[in-house]
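As promised in the previous annual report, we have extended the structural survey to additional targets. Below is the entry for MarR family transcriptional regulator.
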Amino acid sequence: MRRSSAQGVLYGQTVANVAGIANSDLECMDILYLEGRVTAGRLAEVTGLTTGAITGVVDRLEKAGLVRRERDEKDRRKVFIAVVPEAIANLGQFYVPMQQAMEKVFGAYSDEELRLLLRFANEAHKGALAATEALKGLLDTPPEKRPELKLKKRPRQS
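The corresponding structure token record, generated without further manual editing, is:
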């Protein structure tokens, strides 16, 4: 699982490099695609980034033609961030090799096995969300009361 997760991160980094954007920006694009049209505040909430950082992400994605800002029809002060559908199609081409590889892997399993794997993936996702929320709780803990991170000190190189 860890190797697959790490490889997914590395694949995403490669897609971001090929697309000419930062990996964190690509991750935000993915969240926007999954969440749909959202406010910058919601994107900040989902990613854990500050609203200031999200403004920079959205500025870069908008400049790259990947997202657009849309004013709410009912409340003109409210702005939504939406993906540009054509841009998703263009980015999607970089995921075709991964999709084909996964289809080949999934093709070796029965429907019953695939249902089990899907259940596992969904439950693992819920576990990861819970663990992330628990870890985020440490952010509200004063640094002196957080568990100590013990790292080995490396000798200085001259």
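The first strand starts at residue 38 and ends at 39. The CA atoms of residues 34 and 42 lie 13 Å apart. These points will be discussed at the next consortium meeting with the crystallography subgroup.
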